[in-house]
Structures are given as C-alpha cells and as structure tokens.
Amino acid sequence: MPDPAPSTERTVVHLVRHGEVHNPDKLLYGRMPDFHLSELGRRMADMAASYLRERDITHLVSSPLERAQETMQPLAEALGQDVTLDERVIEAGNDFEGLTVGSNPKQLLHPRFWTKLRDPLQPSWGEPYSEIAERMSAAVADARDAARGHEAVIVSHQLPVWTARRHYEGARLWHDPRSRECSLASVTSVTFVGDDVVSLSYAEPAAPLLAQASKVVGA
C-alpha cells in the first residue's frame, strides 16, 4: 500500500500569555497557588478575547494556574467552549520561587545562591530550557491535532511561550530574558500546514494597557 498523502490542512495554534497578576509583594510566584489577575489583568484578558473571538477556534487549553484560567475565561465564555487544563503548559519551575529576587536582585550575591547560578545556559536555577521546549511542543502538537483544519488557543506563561517560539524558529533556547517578545496578554500564533510549521506571528491585543502594568516578576 502506498503511504497516504501528507495532510495539507492549515491549523493555527495561538499561544497566549496571561494578563497582569496582583502581586503587591513583588514575589517571584512561579507555580505558587492563589496568584490571580489584577483588575488591569482582567481588562487585558477581555482584550485578548476580543482579538481572538471571531477566529475559527475549536479547542481551548489552559495552564492549571489561576492566572491562566482567568485569562482564558472571557474567551471561553464568548465561544461557549470548555477548557482543557494541561500541566504541560504550566509556568517553568524555578528554585527562586517565593523570593523577591526579581525586584531585589542583590539577594543573589548571598553565597547560598551561588550554586544555583553556575550555568545560565541550562539554566541551573530551574527547569532546563530543553525540557520546557519538549513539553510545550508536545502540548502544541496535541492542540493542533484536536483543532485540525481550524484553530486552537493555549493560555500559558511568558517563559514557556517564548521557549516554544524559539524552538519553532530553530533558535538557541538560552537567551537574555530582557529580549523576550512576549508581553502581557500577547498572542504568539503558530501556523501549521499538516504537521509542519509554516509561519509564526505575534500580536499585542492589550498594547494600550501595557504602560499601566506593574513590572511582572513571576510571569
């Protein structure tokens, strides 16, 4: 029997970063529970929903963390669709979780942190970039298959979204965090023809609100 012809169906998976989080203590909150969207973050979620709601979306996926589910909520309600929670799109693991090293980096000068900083290319302070790329690409592939010929939305977090993008672009995974193009409530869209990535695009539906946002530490 000849091999079946490759699929030429076009599918788009949109990777959405959650909106601003209420974090008055400026903790690096990572995977900690009970970190919710701020009022501004909820407005950002509404803007992301408005940007996506008219598209041909048939499958919704969210990180299990509250801020991601809250970002997905207005879109899910607008579309009348259920949301699948997927641990594979959760925030990256970080050994500094619960500390304020993001807003007070001088803490890292303490000797107890030195072993965590030995290899920034991995990185040695948390989940390796290669593992983030592997779990994110697997989740994206499953979302693509579930929405085959249509579109899917995954709400995740800055580092997982950015790592997935660099993976699809064939770029090195280690990077300067200040260079990430992945603002609050942004949309990174991966377009497939069959199983092959053919293009990536980026949009900032909440751009008018970004200047009002606090510096997000544990995004």
From TrEMBL:
Protein name: Fructose-2,6-bisphosphatase
CDD domains with a match to the protein in the record: HP_PGM_like (cd07067)
GO cellular component, one term: cytoplasm
Signal peptide start and end residues: none
Lineage, uppermost ranks: Bacteria, Bacillati, Actinomycetota, Actinomycetes, Micrococcales
UniProt-recorded Gene Ontology molecular function terms: phosphatase activity
InterPro entries tied to this protein: His_Pase_superF_clade-1, His_PPase_superfam, PGM_Phosphatase
Organism of derivation: Luteipulveratus halotolerans
